[in-house]
Structure prediction request, 405 residues.
Amino acid sequence: MRAYERLLKYVTVRTPSDESSETVPSSACQFDLAHVLVQELKDLGVSDTRVDEQCYVYGHIPATPGYEDKTKLGFIAHMDTVSDFCDHEIVPVVTENYDGKDFVLGTSGRTISTETFKHLPDLKGRTLITSDGTTILGADDKAGIAEIMTMIERLNAENIPHGPLSIAFTPDEEIGTGASHFNVEEFGAEFGYTLDGDTEGEIQFENFNACKAVFEIEGINVHPGSSKDTMINASLVAMEINSMLPSGDTPRGTEDYEGFYHLVSMSGEVGHAELNYIVRDHDPAVFEVRQETLRHIEKLINEKWGAGTAKLTITQQYRNMSEVIDGCRHLIENAKKACENAGVTPLVLPIRGGTDGAQLSFKGLPCPNLGTGGHGYHGPYEHITAEGMDLAADITVELVKIYAQ
Prediction:
C-alpha cells in the first residue's frame, strides 16, 4: 500500500483529544485507532506490539542478523487530532492531477486559496487529499503513522537490512501531554524521530519554549445605577490586561524564531472573567522576559483595582529540544543525507510549536522532527498530497539504511 491509502483509512477513525479531560488518554476514542494500529503492526510482522492502559502503542522490529550492534533507532507519531472541526464524520476527498489553483472544499463554502497558501502552485499535478471542508482532515498526525507503517512494509518487501527498530504511537500530543506517560525504557531506542511536521524534507530540532498563562479576574458587580466608584467590571479589566501586551507579538505578526503571546480563549461577565494564553519563544532568556511581563501586568492591575483582582497562573509545557540535539548532531546530518538520497531538498527549520520529541529529548531520547508532507493543519483547510507522503516515507527508509551502515 502507498502511504496515502493508509491515511484514508485512519482519518475516518475520529480521535480528537480533550484538553478539559483529566483522564489518560483524554478521550476514549483514541483507543479505537490504537487497536487498529496494533493489529496492522502484527500483520506486518511486529509480533510484540501492544497498547498499554494509557493508550500508548509500542512495537519492536529485531535487527537483521548481523546488524544487532547498530544504533537502536525509533520512529514515533501521534494518534490524536485537535478537537476543532472534528465533531462529525470525516470524509476524505482525493483529487488526482490537481491543477495548482484555488480549490473549493465541497459545498462547505470554504476554499483553499493560493493567496493564503502560497505553496499550492508547487503541488500542481499531484494527487491532493483534503476533507470536504466541514472538518479537519486528520493528516496531523495520521500521515506520520501511515508513513511509518509504509516504511515497515518496505523494509520487509525489499529485504532492507537494518539495526534494531522501535515504533510508538502516542495519544494526546495535541494537548501537550503526548510524552508525559511515554515509557522510554520500554521503547528501547537510543535515538528517535517524530514524524509530525509539515512539508516533506522538513527537519526540525529547534522548537519553542512553551507555557500556558491564565488570568482569572474577579470583579465587583453592583447595580449599574448606583455603581459610581464601586463597580469593577471584570470583562473590562480583562480587556485592559490584553491591551497591556505588545500588539505585534501575536502568531499573525511573528515568524521564524520570533515568539508571541496567543490569546486562545476568553470568557467573562461583570463579576468574573478569564483569559487563556499560550506563550512561546525559542530564546530561553526572552521566554523568561515574556513571563515576567505577564507577572508585572498582574502586579499593576492589582495595584490599580485592588489586591486579588487578577490572579495569574503560569504552567510550564515544554522546552526547546535544541539544548539536547546540539549534543548529537548526527541526527540532523543523517536526516539531511536521507532527504538528499530520496531526492528531496532538506529544509532545516525551527518549529513554531512543539512535538512529543521536545519532551522526549529531555527524558533521555533525543528526538528531532521530520515533515510528513502536509499543510494547513488544525483546521478545515488541511491538505496533503499522495506524492509528498511517498517522499516522506522514502526519507524514513533512507534513514534506516544510513543507521545500518
